[in-house]
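Progress narrative, Year 2. Work on Iron-sulfur cluster carrier protein from Megasphaera paucivorans advanced from sequence curation to structure prediction during this period.
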Amino acid sequence: MSEECNHECSSCGSSCDSRTKPESMQVAPHMGTHVKHVIGIVSGKGGVGKSLVTSLLAVQMQRKGYKTAILDADITGPSIPKIFGMTEKATGDEHGIFPVNTKKGIEVMSINLLLEDTSSPVVWRGPVIAGAVKQFWTDIVWGDIDYMFVDMPPGTGDVPLTVFQSLPVDGIFVVTSPQELVSMIVEKALKMSEMMHIPVLGLIENMSYFECPDCHEQHEIFGASHVAETAEKYQIPHSMKLPIDPEFAAHCDAGDIESFNKNYLEETAAYLESVF
Ligand SMILES: Nc1ncnc2c1ncn2[C@@H]1O[C@H](COP(=O)(O)OP(=O)(O)OP(=O)(O)O)[C@@H](O)[C@H]1O
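Result:
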């Protein structure tokens, strides 16, 4: 940037630092909120296990002693309250709305903690949904949080864009399935984060293999894993493979993911701790 810069960009070079830096559209959180790190969990398409990974990461960091929260930004398909077995509704006072605690004390906000009838679909247009997610940041009294995990809706639509622009996202984890990794969908998600200047912290391949409970041989049910080569191609510093484990589904259905005691994401949690 030249010393004579008058911030009138039309008269200057396109490579100017000031001109190329995106203008911040971040919004301030509620005055009762102090979050140290915001981590997004994204996927190219639905049903690959994004909410499960969000929950496992939050549980793992909570076990390490950090104050952890989940902002469920998946307004039309909110699964976090169910995975944690939460039935209590959120309450508020004149200062704002309070998140609801899971059994082990992870703070959660989700549309399903606000709606009376959780079986009715949320039939809202994109900007209204994105506005609600923004309010989960501006109107919720989160308190002091070390790690906030944002469970994004799948794809690269309105909500991920709003979260990337409005919240101080430190980085994202991309959740994929072995089939999805060979497609261009995941590349779209990776390129979106690049465009938004948000670092991809890790790539998590879910349903990567099934380990036979008898002989312990690992079978790649959905095809060969491509997670390591994709991570290398995009210079993503961390990658991880999660197996198909029927206990996941059982714990999610029973709403007690916090008592699931296989620490598959221990390495990912240690990596996250080392980055921030
Ligand atoms: N590795 C796995 N092994 C067994 N079951 C799994 C595994 N991963 C996810 N599931 C099950 O698949 C279902 C979908 O998972 P989840 O809700 O996390 O997906 P999602 O990507 O968040 O979906 P959506 O995009 O619809 O929100 C859940 O019932 C979950 O228990």
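The two ends are 30 Å apart (CA to CA). The chain has one domain: 32-271.
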